[in-house]
Amino acid sequence: MKAAVCTRYGPPEVVALCDVPTPVPGAGEVLVQVRAATVSRTDRETLRGHPWFARAVTGLVRPKIPILGVDFAGIVTEVGDRATRFRPGDRVFGLSPERFGCHAEYLAIAENAAVAEIPDGIAFHEAVVGEGAWYAHSNLEAFGLSEGQSVLAYGASGAIGTAAVQLAKARGATVTAVVATRHLDLATALGADRVVDYTAEDFTARPERYDLVFDAVGKTSYRACKPLLKPGGAFHATDLGRWWENVFLSLWSSVTRSGRVAIGMPVRPEAVVGMLAELLADGRLRAVIDRHHPLDEIVEAYRHVATEQKTGIVVIDVAG
Ligand SMILES: NC(=O)c1ccc[n+]([C@@H]2O[C@H](COP(=O)([O-])OP(=O)(O)OC[C@H]3O[C@@H](n4cnc5c(N)ncnc54)[C@H](OP(=O)(O)O)[C@@H]3O)[C@@H](O)[C@H]2O)c1
Fold first, then answer.
1. How far is CA 74 from the centre of its chain?
2. What does pTM read for this prediction?
3. End-to-end alpha-carbon separation of the chain, Å?
């Protein structure tokens, strides 16, 4: 099969399209013919071996896993021994955050991992929203965002931010989205109750207060957002912070049990994909797609993701 392979850390150009053996589904696994995948910030950071401490997991000198790609959508073509959940022909989507492997024509994945059926009417490229939604959900869930509460989503135009707006609305929260001018209409279309243009005004100087401020793109800080929090409110981030302050502040919040600052670590994706399928099915979650590239143009896709300017997701059309 064809796969995008990286044998060393580096810029997008180290990724090469190669012929590699098609995986064989083991016991309890299914083989998926991948029809769509994404190049995400995770793929890009893993490719460049960043942050440095992550290399303890991803490989000290070179990537341990040469085929990246976390999000997939495709068709089950084979089932391994004792795999009973899916049948050949089933349309499935999901996440492979530990083993990656989605930048390839085929992916073998445990049937009880993060895999769910694609709802009727949703195309493969519309189903590869999993990773951003997983990160967003993990933060909303860790905070315990509930109906009637208010959230400010900062950087609501990226993969995590566009999902955060939709998932917060699905929870019945009131959402303020902070984006650049070019994304104001998008944020409104995603359901934001209020949109703020960060290029035109200082969002921290506004009078509104929030239960949760969620920095979905790692470009603001607790210090800047602290005045926006209601009593008992919290600041959640997806990133370490400019000086890694979110790490220290979230540790301190845990020690003091204040819950004031947190990096909502995404865990148990298998517990999330079923919910995402329901939200996709009834239209409460939709993919925001910046652009498509075929698999043989994946270097181009990485280059665009590296600009940190993408809107939503960058889709790789793998086959068909
Ligand atoms: N290390 C990892 O493995 C990993 C994995 C996943 C996510 N993350 C972190 O999670 C965060 C979000 O990831 P993502 O995939 O959702 O990001 P993304 O899709 O790359 O976000 C890009 C969006 O952010 C907007 N943006 C850029 N600068 C901004 C600013 N100063 N204020 C507000 N918006 C700004 C851009 O639009 P404009 O420039 O037009 O505003 C663009 O639409 C990142 O910090 C990323 O590092 C890390």
1. 18
2. 0.96
3. 14
| Domain identity same for 33 and 47 | yes
Q: Is residue 90 part of a domain?
A: yes
Which are the contacts of 52, defined by CB distance < 8 A and separation ≥ 6?
none
pLDDT at 319: 79
pLDDT band at 264 (very low <50, low <70, confident <90, very high): confident
**Predicted pLDDT at 274:** 97
> For ligand 1, is residue 219 a contact (CB within 6 Å)?
yes
Question: Distance, CA 238 to ligand 1 centroid (Å)?
Answer: 9
pLDDT at 320 over 80: no
Compute CA 34 distance to the chain's CA centroid, rounded to the nearest angstrom: 18
Token duo for residue 100? 């990656």
Shared domain for 124 and 135, answered yes or no, is no
**Distance in Å, CA 258 to ligand 1 centroid:** 27
- On whether residue 110 sits in a domain, the answer given is yes
